[in-house]
Amino acid sequence: xxxxxxxxxxxxxxxxxxxxxxxxxxxxxxxxxxxxxxxxxxxxxxxxxxxxxxxxxxxxxxxxxxxxxxxxxxxxxxxxxxxxxxxxxxxxxxxxxxxxxxxxxxxxxxxxxxxxxxxxxxxxxxxxxxxxxxxxxxxxxxxxxxxxxxxxxxxxxxxxxxxxxxxxxxxxxxxxxxxxxxxxxxxxxxxxxxxxxxxxxxxxxxxxxxxxxxxxxxxxxxxxxxxxxxxxxxxx
Length: 236
Known about the structure:
It is globular, with a radius of gyration of 17 Å. The protein has helices at residues 32-45, 56-60, 76-84, 97-110, 122-128, 161-168, 182-193, 216-223, and strands at residues 6-12, 18-26, 66-70, 89-93, 115-118, 135-141, 169-179, 198-200, 229-235. Strands 5-4-3-6-7-9-8 form a 7-stranded mixed sheet, with helices on both faces. A two-stranded antiparallel ribbon has the order 1-2. The protein has 8 helices and 9 strands. α6 (161-168) links the parallel β6 and β7 (169-179).
């Protein structure tokens, strides 16, 4: 995920408890180039958040398979995957403005007609905009690991959010999660395994998916001796 200072990590629920968000709001600055892309391209490629279901055909102009990526950071992996798979549609959800601007630049530079962005909290987006049984895949690459024990309740890949993910997938759709935090991967494995409609595609952790490009973030992790771990679950 993108860097910067943490400004916000969650919000109170109606009952006064902690409500998980899908993101960490950060203070990283938006460059002039990123801001230009935001100003010029948002209208064409950013889908406004609404509280009504999205019409994928109206958004993309076709009925191709749709993958949602939660927290795409600077969008390099999103753009490369979309470029390699023009017959599929991709929706990236991100609140980091610099990342949104960068992915908009990638969309224009690569002439990607199959990518759209929703700049909003992913939990709200899934609950309000994504119809049940409508998606072919979720990509969750390097979500915030919340390393301190007292913060682990803030992790995204846990129930009941994993149940929401499963409910939005078509039968045969998949969830691919990648993290360089071993503890997070262990907990995510348990949380996803607890969802009755999901099946682990592997005995435990998955081998590296060859279609997934290695990002700069991942290169830094590898250089520090933190090899990423992957999870691949299938909706049944």
